[in-house]
Write a structure and sequence with these properties.
- This is E3 ubiquitin-protein ligase HECTD2.
- It comes from Caerostris extrusa.
- The protein is mostly helical.
- It is built from four helices and no strands.
- It is elongated and about 40 Å long.
Length: 70
């Protein structure tokens, strides 16, 4: 794959940058406060899809994103 993936890389870095970013992106009700220990109230199907797509990306795009998170 070739091309400019800068915007896509920025999306994933922003989306998975922290737990707060994940919650802000995938929360079922973005207006509700906080997260519960037993249920973070996230749209898990969207979260899994975004993460699965990240895993399928070309390695030169995926590697820098995942390295910042470890």
């Amino acid at each position: 794959m070739t091309g400019d993936y800068t915007r896509l890389q920025e999306f994933y870095e922003t989306t998975f940058g922290s737990l707060l970013d994940i919650c802000a992106t995938f929360k079922i009700n973005p207006d509700s406060e906080g997260a519960k220990a037993d249920d973070a109230e996230l749209r898990m199907e969207f979260l899994y899809e975004a993460y699965d797509n990240l895993a399928d990306m070309v390695s030169n795009l995926r590697s820098p994103i995942l390295q910042r998170k470890s």
